Automatic annotation (TrEMBL):
It catalyses: 5-phospho-beta-D-ribosylamine + L-glutamate + diphosphate = 5-phospho-alpha-D-ribose 1-diphosphate + L-glutamine + H2O. This is Amidophosphoribosyltransferase. PROSITE patterns: GATASE_TYPE_2 (PS51278). Its EC number is 2.4.2.14. It comes from Pseudoroseicyclus aestuarii. CDD domains: GPATase_N, PRTases_typeI. GO terms for biological process: 'de novo' IMP biosynthetic process; purine nucleobase biosynthetic process.
Amino acid sequence: CGVFGVIGVTDAANFVALGLHALQHRGQEAAGIVTHDPEAGFNSARRMGYVRDNFTSHEVIRTLPGTIGIGHVRYSTSGNKGGTAMRDVQPFFGEFSMGGAAVAHNGNLTNAAQLRKELIERGSIFQSSSDTECIIHLMARSMGRTIPDRMEEALRKVEGAFSVVAMTRTKLIGVRDPLGVRPLVLGRLGDGYVLASETCALDIIGAELMREVEPGEMVVVTGEGVESHRPFRPRPSRFCIFEHVYFSRPDSILGGKSVYETRRQIGVELAKEAPVEADLVCPVPDSGTPAAIGYAAESGIPYGMGIVRNQYMGRTFIEPSEQIRNMGVRLKLNVNRALIRGKRVILVDDSVVRGTTSRKIKEMILDAGAAEVHFRIASPPTAWPCFYGVDTPERDKLLASHMSEEEMCAHLGVDSLRFISLDGLYRAVGEARGRDPERPQYCDACFSGEYPIVPADMVERGFQL
Ligand code: 5GP
Ligand code: SF4
Ligand code: MG
């Protein structure tokens, strides 16, 4: 998901809509905006579908007055996964004795089922199937005197990954979980301030990046400025390494590093680790493009657009139903036959999850008359599900959970298949000495199976670590 918030600007809703539009790649199922105006009070709009289709008309924006606002773009990783229900669309809102607060959350709480059960037993009435709603109920039960106090208390009880943007009538609040699994940045816009999942959402409104909200930090922003709190016991951070590989936009800056440059470097590492003789390096667009550029540069093999993407389709995997996902590949990608014919092609993609994309693409490339097809993947084999806010399928649906690299190669029917090593990936994100096995610098659980936060609800349901 993507989160965004702004304070101290005229017509905040316009900025929130633009920020969410820039974060659309983080969630395409639904979007919502809440604003506050001293006269009109809190107002909200929540809609299914794209930001541009719902939040560009004056009709909607004029119902959202105020100089403070937050927003959320959703894709389901918890709650109803079969597609978003209206009641699960964020931001969520709670009314407390000291006033209202709206909350938008990116990530996934790993003890939400347990908390929900306890809260329901003690009288909470849940409105949605979302893990995020626990935060509101925990805040309602807190004795804290201010909303930020209540939020701190609530967030000390939840486990998992959370980058939260929240607002009261007068305050904008941003929090990252102690491990800082998901991103969140703080920016400046004139006299106002902005919080956003990624820097690309600052760029679109002309805001200036101040800094990242730090892992375990809560920032409370008012007209007076930014206050920093440390609600949690300090721990070494574990940022999601997959944000660098795939999830974030290539024009964003993560941890001071250009995402594009990191991905290009992954391609360079891949070319060193897994060279092959071929005529053409070709990305699976768009997610494989920067790595393919790096692979081509390092190998000296020409780069070409052998696959062309229809820009008007969303990301395949974000469509939750199996049937649509299967159609998706053909609707979205087409082979550039004139370029491919007779060539030995290296295809570079960011990841192999179920393997359906790779299989379809291989077929399309061979149909177009390619002489050989070699896959090079910009992440290690995805063998474990993510419980921290990226929607990977169950373990047995992950190709790499039950197949070796050779078996996957045979299954996909390609001439060769190689993944970047975990160390190679760490080098590409700037860790010169690779992954520290004692204290890994990032979360890489979907590749290593080492979960930095025990997925308590999943363990309870029988998941084997
Ligand atoms: P597959 O067809 O192997 O299931 O999906 C691989 C494609 O889905 C890749 O091209 C990649 O861009 C995209 N993808 C990346 N991350 C994820 C993820 O976490 N889950 C899923 N299902 N697909 C992803
Ligand atoms: Fe990121 Fe993978 Fe960790 Fe999930 S399991 S937070 S996708 S690195
Ligand atoms: Mg892709």
